[in-house]
Structures are given as C-alpha cells and as structure tokens.
Design goal:
Chain lengths: ~280, ~425
C-alpha cells in the first residue's frame, strides 16, 4: 500500500438542487454495462417463447391495428401499406414504452441494492432503458424483412436513424427519471404508468399519420410530444414518407432535452432520500 | 495519517408518528382529499418522506466524533438499535448524514451484506462479475482474481450452474469470496461473519485478519466479541446513537460486557412484597455480576432481604434461576442445604453467590424466582420472576464463539477428537 492518499471525499448533508456528477457516472460505466447485461440475460429466462416476445409484442399490435384502424376504419397511411406504416412506428414506440415502464419501477425493484451499496443511482433507470436496445434490434430486423416483403427501399436518410433512436431514448429516460424517483415515495406511480403509456400511444401518430392534423399551430403543439418526431422520422427515413423533420422535429428535440435534464436534476434532488425511504 | 474523520455527525430518521384521529366524517373526508395534495406539494419541494406521511423523528446517530488512522482496524460494538448499521451506512455513502460531516481519505469498499445483487437466474460465474461490478471492481480486476475467488468459495464444480440451485451455504461462500477480494484502502464491514457454519466463519475471520495485516483501514461491526478482540486495535462503543467509549479493545469490550449485565438487573416486580396477612415479606432483592478473581469468568451474587413480623419456628429462603421460557435451570433452598433459620423474627439478609457462573451456564438472560417457606411444609410467599439477570457470555471452548443461550443452556465440559475414516464427497 502506498502512503499517498488517492482520494478524498467529504460526506455531508446536501440541500436543494445538486450537481449531476456526470464524471462519477462515467467512472461507473462498467456497472452500468453489467446491469444492462444482467437485464438482457434475465429478461426472457423461464419463458417458453424467449426472445421472440420482443418481436411478438409490436407485431401482434401491428396486426390488430391493421385490422381495426387500417381495414375497418380506413385510416389513411400516407400512401404506404398500412401494416408496415404502423409497424415502422411501433418498433421505436415499443422501445420507448418498455423503457418507460422498466425505468419507472427500476428503483423500487433495486431497493436491496440501494440499501446496501453506494453507486450513482442514475445508472439504475439508465440501465433499464438501455436494456431495451436488444429487443429493439430484434423487432427492427423484422421491420427490415417486412420492407423486403413490400419491396420498399430505405431512403438515404436512414443515416439519421440512430439520432432518432437517441431522441426516443432521451424521452424514455427523461420521463423514466421523473417517475422512478417519484415511485420511491409514492407507489401510486406504479399504477399510473400503464395508463400514461396508453394515453401517450394515442397522442402519438402510430395508428394514424400526423398529416391528419392540418392546422399549423396545432401541429406545433402536437410536436411537443417528442415521440411524434421519432415516429414520423422513422417513417421518413425508412419508408420515404413526406414527413421530413421540420420545425416539429426541433420542438420534439427541445422537449426531450428538457424532460431529460429536468428529470436528471429532480432525480438527483430526491436521491438523498432513496435509501431511507425505498 | 488520518483515514476517517467524523465531526459532529448526526442522522435523523422519520418514522411513522401516531395516526391523526378523524373527529367527524367531514374531517375524515377533507383529510382524505387534502392529504394527497399536501404530499404532492412536499414531493415537488423534494422533502417528501414517503406516502405514509412520516412525521415522528428519531436520531439514529448524534454527536458522533472520531478519528481513525490509516491501517487501523476499528471495531464498532453496541446493542441492537445503538446505531451501528446507520453509522456504516453513512460511512459507505448509502445515506447522507443529517448534521456534521465525515472526511474520508482513500477509496472505500463496503460490505454490508454478502452477495448484494446476486441474481437467482444467473450462474455462479455470471454473478461473480455482476457482484464484483456492484462492489466496485473493474472487469479487468475480476478477470485477474476470478480463479482465486472461485477457489476460496470452493464452488468450482457448480460455477456454471444458476445460483438458484446453490445451497444457501454455497451462495454465502461465493458472496463472501467476491467481497473478500476487494482491495479498497478503507473497508467497511457489517456483521457478515455471523452467518454460515463454524468453518466458514473461521475462514472469513482469517481473511479479515489478512486484510488487517496488509495495512488496510477496516471499520468492522460485530457482536462476536472474540472476533473483535482478535482483530481490532481500538473499539467504538455506541449507545443510543452516541459514542460512549472509543478506546483500546480490551477496555471497551470489558465495559460493554459489564454494561450489558448491569443495565439488565432490572426488577421486574416492585418490592417490598408481603403475603396476604402481611406477616412476612420480601423487602428487596438485588443481583450483581462481578468478574471472578481469576480467568475469564464472572460471579453472580443475589441478595434477598426478608422481613418477618410474626414469630416463626423455622424459616427458609430459596431462589431459583429459570430461563425466559420458564425452564428451571437450578434452584437452592433450605431443605437442601439445612440453612434454616430457627426462631425467626425481624429482618434477614440472605446472600446467594455462585462463582464462575458462566463456566456452568450459557450467557444470556434469566429470571430469578424467590420464596420464603416453612421448610418441607409449605410456601409462605413465592415471587416468580422477581428479577432479571444477564449472565455475560464467555468463550468457553476457546474457539472464538461466546457461548450463549441459543447454543444450549449448559456448556458441558465436552472434549472432542476427530479423525478421518474415509474420503467423503463434497457438499452438493
């Protein structure tokens, strides 16, 4: 052992808003990696269908949507076959919704860790959202197969897809941070999340195109929902719809960023009571 | 060089206070409607304490000041609820102090539980990586120590079996083994040695000894006084959230054992107690534990004062020791000893003394029954559970375990020899 002190820290009470400590978060990246890895490994253990659940969820929803909204209600789909129109939206949506659900409950589900060991608590909801990436890749592969089936070539704009995915990630984590921190104090959140997700599904142009909304002012307000940007962006990049990112996209990005930053600060503010309350 | 400096440290918890009573239905209704709004407001301010609306406050730690030098092994002892675990939680950054601060010089590794974050569905191998990462080891570090960890835990054969199929002992060994290979400058350990079988406990203790000898700083909570005496240079004694002593090990452990006994000579009944026609009574009873002149044992003394207000031809005073469950451990009465008072009248003091009591009796809590009688004829007055005594446990067999009631009431002078007759299969 060297005589040099490598590290000094003062533990004292904190009040109000506190720094995010992103540097420390970076130091714990391996833990984040292992938590994501654990979630992925464990997710479909003891299920018969295993990882096919990742595909079945959006795929079955697509079938239901196609039957009821596409066939029966004759909802327009920007000139693209309805099944692929809705599935292209459901893939990023499922990533978002799963991430939201998992992260909201993540702190409560990790209470034994929180009470027994220190690490930046932010890695818990972050890991939950990230672990959805594998599901996304599986569902996305099916999307590519469907594009082959419908003979649709992706546009050059496919290069923007990672950015759109980041936008979905930011939104999911942003809301997840708010809800997970609240959930520690109020388990009411657990019962609110499915409701929020369902509501959000309908204010996002998944079953219908956003072109149905004609009023420009209304469209801008509509764009406050970052998932609108994500979903329309996916269709634009892959299916070549006429929904190129415009002002709506900008609004989406700003909203997502606000959600994420405010969520992170709120989370850090509440963090000091996690171990005592959870 | 300092490793840990705590200054005026305090930790307050909020616990559920008494429930507000609703006077009328209207009050109840408004309460129900207003409470969530009030809580939501608190929540936004970042000062909520859960949906229960916890209002009563307790100080789990108060005015804690101490300094620990680098390379010191410091024990933390105290009764349940004295604040030991809270102190460890503050030191390992799990929870913030409410007042004061702690300066920590060096990286801290904490071990408040064995196998934190183990996942049932993952294999032993996978859990080593997961648990290692949770405890703060890097992947490279785990890779390097992997074989050593598996070897120490003795689970080579089952390393690729999901942990849910492990016996609880195996899980424990694996958990401890990962933690034992942490190399922080300051190690904070809760009572983890209390689990597992004797051989495992010995192994853990040995590992702790190694860590101590490597010159690391260790803060270590235990109820196992033998382990404390063996490992620690200095000991902190906590009492209701405050440090009552911080000094060299022998002194503090001694004080703790004595305090444990003294605080427990509580009378469970109020004296004097007289018989129905108030002709005879026991005016007081007291007990004390003192260290026997030689060795590690203690002496129990019971003093009984009797008040006789009526001439009696013969009088006997007897006492019995029972366990909390009421099993009579031993009794002594006049017909046995012929200590009979003849022509009794006035006040008497009767002295019962048992030297080296904890040589014969397990450490723990006992009741004393006391009675006055006409020897061989009838009880005149009988007071059950007159007083509680706590016999301090001692390390009877010298193996590091203090013999307590849950090991059995009587530590028989048993000797054992062991020889291997044939090779046996390992635990499965």
């Amino acid at each position: 052992m060297s005589d040099q002190v490598s590290y000094h820290i003062r533990l004292e009470p904190t009040r109000g808003w506190v720094a995010l400590k992103l540097k420390e978060l970076w130091e714990y990246r391996e833990l984040l990696f292992f938590l994501v890895w654990r979630d992925i490994k464990v997710r479909y253990k003891q299920t018969i269908l295993g990882a096919s659940w990742a595909i079945l969820q959006p795929f079955m929803t697509m079938i239901v949507f196609s039957l009821f909204f596409g066939r029966l209600a004759q909802i327009p789909s920007d000139g693209i076959p309805y099944p692929i129109f809705s599935y292209a939206a459901l893939v990023p949506w499922t990533f978002f919704a799963t991430g939201l659900g998992m992260s909201s409950n993540s702190l409560v589900n990790s209470s034994n860790l929180i009470k027994k060991i220190y690490f930046p608590r932010l890695v818990i909801p972050m890991g939950s959202v990230m672990s959805g990436a594998v599901d996304f890749v599986l569902a996305f592969t099916v999307l590519l197969l469907m594009m082959v089936y419908y003979s649709i070539l992706p546009t050059i704009n496919i290069v923007f897809l990672p950015l759109l995915l980041v936008l979905a990630f930011m939104t999911s984590l942003g809301v997840g941070l708010w809800l997970s921190a609240m959930n520690v104090q109020f388990r009411d959140i657990r019962y609110t999340v499915p409701f929020i997700t369902q509501f959000w599904l309908f204010i996002t142009p998944i079953a219908y195109p956003s072109s149905l909304i004609k009023n420009d002012m209304l469209r801008l307000i509509y764009g406050l929902n970052p998932m609108t940007g994500v979903v329309e962006g996916f269709r634009w990049a892959l299916l070549g719809t006429d929904t190129a990112p415009g002002p709506i996209m900008l609004v989406s990005f700003v909203t997502a960023l606000l959600l994420l930053v405010s969520g992170a600060f709120y989370f850090r503010r509440m963090e000091r009571s996690f171990a005592d309350v959870v | 060089m300092k490793a840990v400096v705590a200054v005026n440290l305090g930790k307050q918890y909020r616990i559920g206070g008494p429930q507000a009573k609703y006077a009328t239905f209207r009050d109840a209704l408004t309460q129900t409607l207003v409470a969530p709004i009030k809580r939501a407001r608190n929540l936004m301010r970042g000062q909520a304490y859960g949906a229960a609306g916890l209002e009563e406050e307790i100080w789990a730690l108060k005015n804690i000041n101490f300094e620990v030098e680098h390379g010191e092994v410091v024990g933390i002892i105290g009764h349940n609820g004295a604040g030991k675990s809270t102190l460890l939680k503050v030191l390992s950054r799990i929870t913030e102090p409410t007042t004061g601060y702690v300066d920590i010089y060096g990286r801290v590794g904490s071990l408040l539980e064995v196998g934190t974050g183990f996942h049932q569905e993952l294999t032993g191998r996978e859990n080593i990586y997961l648990n290692g990462a949770i405890l703060g080891m890097s992947r490279a570090e785990i890779n390097r120590k992997f074989d050593e960890i598996v070897d120490f835990a003795g689970v080579e054969k089952f390393i690729d079996t999901p942990v849910k199929h492990y016996s609880s002992g195996m899980r424990l060994r694996l958990g401890f083994s990962v933690a034992a290979h942490l190399e922080p400058e300051i190690l904070v350990v809760d009572e983890v040695l209390a689990v597992g079988d004797i051989s495992f406990q010995k192994k853990c203790l040995g590992k702790m000894q190694d860590v101590a000898e490597e010159g690391r700083t260790v803060l270590f909570v235990s109820h196992n006084m033998a382990a404390i005496e063996q490992l620690c240079t200095r000991v902190i004694l906590l009492e209701s959230g405050m440090i009552s002593q911080f000094s060299e090990t022998k002194k503090v452990v001694e004080a703790y054992v004595m305090q444990a006994t003294q605080s427990l000579f509580q009378k469970s009944r109020d004296f004097p107690i007289y018989n129905n026609d108030e002709t005879i009574g026991i005016s007081s009873i007291a007990a004390s534990i003192t260290r026997s002149g030689h060795g590690k044992f203690h002496t129990l003394t019971i003093l009984v004062d009797a008040d006789v207000r009526q001439h009696l031809d013969r009088l006997g005073i007897g006492v019995a020791l029972t366990t909390l469950e009421g099993v009579v451990v031993s009794s002594i009465f006049p017909s046995m000893t012929n200590y009979v008072i003849t022509e009794a009248y006035g006040e008497y003091e009767c002295h019962f003394q048992c030297e080296d009591i904890n040589r014969y009796l397990a450490g723990g809590r006992y009741y004393v029954n006391v009675w006055l009688s006409l020897p061989r004829i009838e009880f005149l007055l009988k007071v059950d559970r007159a007083i509680i005594v706590d016999i301090p446990p001692v390390d009877i067999y010298g193996g590091g375990i203090y013999f307590e009631v849950h090991h059995g009431i009587v530590p028989l002078p048993m000797k054992y020899t062991l020889s291997q007759k044939s090779a046996t299969l390992p635990e499965s």
